[in-house]
Design a protein that fits this description.
21% helix; 279 residues; Purple Acid Phosphatase, chain A, domain 2
């Protein structure tokens, strides 16, 4: 059994020039360890991704979880996530997705490993801002006036720092009609907040269960594979992809650049039920 550390490395260490992060997203865990989502046991695939991160032996400073931890809203599913990342022995920062139930999230988190911070000063040169785009009971996202104000204020407070912004819902269409109807619905307001701030370098999301990387208004927009089922890119109707679950690494460089790569499981053990029409 892995023993949790209670004193994790300080991500906010001011002497760090470069900071490397690992993003995992959309685990969709159930309280029942045997439950599957569209034919994929989500706990098994999540565990395999954690093992892949471990065996990659890549250096990284912290984990980012960008929403949809749970599929069934239970305390037990959130505890399984906490137990699942324990072997990584890194601090984890999280935000809610549309499938999450925040009262139960907050009954389990924060914990010794999973932090509740929504603003991080990272090393010498960067800040990370985590936003809540959840609309309770709806698959699409919206950033409230309070969240937009919070974003604007943090960008204004630290103009000398490069900025990475995290939210669950994608603020840029990915080209799949069925997914794009569930995007961030007030994305225009989001981009208006960012427009005056040249220090914004990237926006990182979950939600779409696929690797997407595009520049918009001088900002990199990135989404990442789920740890379970994958959605087929550029598909007008609901469709699942054959590629494996995965994760993303990001190195925030001292010069404002981001080095990023998506990693996928080498095996094809987690193929979904391709006859599924949705979930």
């Amino acid at each position: 059994m892995t023993t949790l550390k209670t004193d994790f490395p300080n991500l906010l260490e001011p002497d760090l020039a470069d900071v490397t992060l690992v993003q995992i997203t959309d685990t969709h865990l159930f309280s029942d360890r045997e439950r599957a989502l569209l034919g994929v046991n989500t706990l098994d695939s999540f565990t395999a991704v954690v093992e892949d991160i471990t065996t990659s032996k890549r250096h990284y400073d912290a984990l980012l979880m960008t929403g949809d931890v749970s599929q069934d809203h239970t305390d037990a599913s959130y505890t399984l996530f906490e137990q699942g990342i324990a072997p990584l022995q890194k601090p984890c920062f999280w935000l809610p997705g549309n499938h999450d139930y925040q009262p139960n999230m907050y009954s389990v988190y924060p914990s010794p490993q999973i932090q509740e911070d929504t603003h991080l000063l990272v090393g010498k040169h960067w800040q990370i801002i985590l936003l809540d785009s959840q609309v309770e009971g709806c698959p699409h996202g919206v950033l409230s006036a309070q969240q937009l104000q919070y974003l604007s204020q943090k960008l204004a407070d630290y103009p000398e720092r490069f900025s990475l912004i995290l939210l669950h819902h994608h603020p840029l269409l990915v080209g799949s009609a069925w997914l794009d109807q569930h995007c961030l619905h007030n994305s225009e307001a989001f981009w208006q907040v960012l427009q005056p701030h040249s220090n914004v370098k990237a926006v990182l999301c979950g939600h779409v269960h696929q690797d997407f990387h595009q520049h918009y208004q001088g900002v990199e927009v990135l989404t990442s594979p789920s740890t379970c089922i994958q959605f087929k890119p550029q598909s007008h109707e609901f469709a699942l992809d054959t590629v494996s679950p995965g994760w993303r690494s990001l190195t925030l460089k001292a010069n404002g650049q981001i080095e990023t790569q998506v990693y996928r499981l080498a095996s094809s053990d987690f193929q979904p039920d391709f006859e599924s029409q949705g979930y």
